[in-house]
Amino acid sequence: MPVTIVKADGSVEYFKVEKLRRSLRRAGATKDEVREIVTEVDKLLYEGIKTQEIYRLAFELLRKSEMPAAARYSLRRALFGLGPTGFPFEIFLAKLFEVEGYITRTGVELEGKCASHEIDVTAYNETNSFVAEAKFHARPGIKTDLQVVMYSYARLLDLKDIKVCNKDQCGIKDFLVVTNTKFTSTAERYATCTGLKLLSWDYPRRNNLHDHIQRARVYPITVLPEISNNQAATLISHNIILCRDLLAKPHVLRHLHISQKKTESILQSAKSLCQQDN
Q1: 87-216 belongs to which CATH class?
Q2: Which residues of 117-136 are buried (b: 16+ CB within 10 A; e: fewer)?
Q3: Model pTM?
Q4: Distance of alpha carbon 25 from alpha carbon 13, whole angstroms
Q5: In sequence order, which residues have a C-beta less than 8 Å from that of residue 89 and are 6 or more positions away?
Q6: What's the mean pLDDT in 107-115?
Q7: What topology is assigned to 219-274 in CATH?
Q8: Is residue 225 pLDDT above 80, yes or no?
């Protein structure tokens, strides 16, 4: 019998086992692990169960057998841990674009035709350039709406003759709006109509934010299960946003006042996430 579940935004839908299977596979779980976790989750399903409860159960089961996969599975929620302000998320995006081959800057003031604009991220390489607006939300269920997208399109029109660097290819070709949650359907339709680029956890269907992160292996430190929220905040205050930042500057862990064993465990988890597949 179909079971209805309650999503983070309060809406209700039927539980779709294939969505759970797909998220587990994307995290790197094996076929046997996927089958076992789906079986266990199915046993505990009840009418009106919240998606957060399904996630917690699947995460704990995956964590017992495959820590890197469990960390990747928790990636979406790890992005919320970059708050409460949106600035760490802006830095995260800039670093993500850097790995993808762009030269980036954050918090740039650009003078448009009619107004000045503070841009969250500018990015350019030898063939392309764009600016990005980061819309960070500290909890799931909050969507970036039509008003934000319309405002961003107006900014694009005002900046269309401006460059982000002195090279020929540095004219602003795209204005990218990026959120760690989702866009409303009206926002998506408006962006499609105007040509504005949107990037969210699952939009567009291909090459969305999740795909970018997995491909680049740019994981926030909040994905590491050994690190508490307060410890993550301490590391972020020292400009350690990514797991690869931690591997490059492991000495920063001394600010957490933890044991050598805990330090080694954190670094091993970070290394497992960042290393390339064989």
Answers
A1: alpha beta
A2: bebbbbbbeeeebbbbbbbb
A3: 0.81
A4: 22
A5: 79, 82, 83, 134, 136, 180
A6: 95
A7: DNA polymerase; domain 1 (1.10.150)
A8: yes
278, pLDDT greater than 70: no
Q: Could you give the dihedral angle defined by the CA atoms of residues 5, 7, 12 and 15, in that order, rounded to the nearest 10 degrees?
A: -40
> What residues are paired with 13 via a beta bridge?
5
Amino acid at 52: Q
Instruction: Determine the pLDDT at residue 193.
Output: 96
Q: Give the pair of three-digit tokens for residue 69.
A: 């996969």
Over residues 228-252, the mean pLDDT reads 94
Q: Where does 173-274 have alpha helices with state H?
A: 185-194, 209-216, 229-237, 243-248, 260-274
Decide: 4 and 15 in contact? Cβ < 8 Å. yes
Residue 263 contacts residue 271 (beta carbons within 8 Å): no
Domain-wise residue ranges, the chain: 4-73, 87-216, 219-274
The C-alpha torsion from 177 through 180 and 186 to 189, rounded to 10°, is 50
Helical ranges in 74-130 per DSSP H: 75-80, 87-99
Q: Which amino acid is at 258?
A: I
Whole-angstrom Cα distance, residue 25 to residue 29?
5
Name residue 139's amino acid. Answer: R
Q: Which two tokens stand for residue 249?
A: 């500057």
Q: Which residue, among 74, 33, 76, 53, has the nearest Cα to 224 in the 3D structure?
A: 74
**Quick check: 158 and 117 in contact, CB under 8 A?**
yes
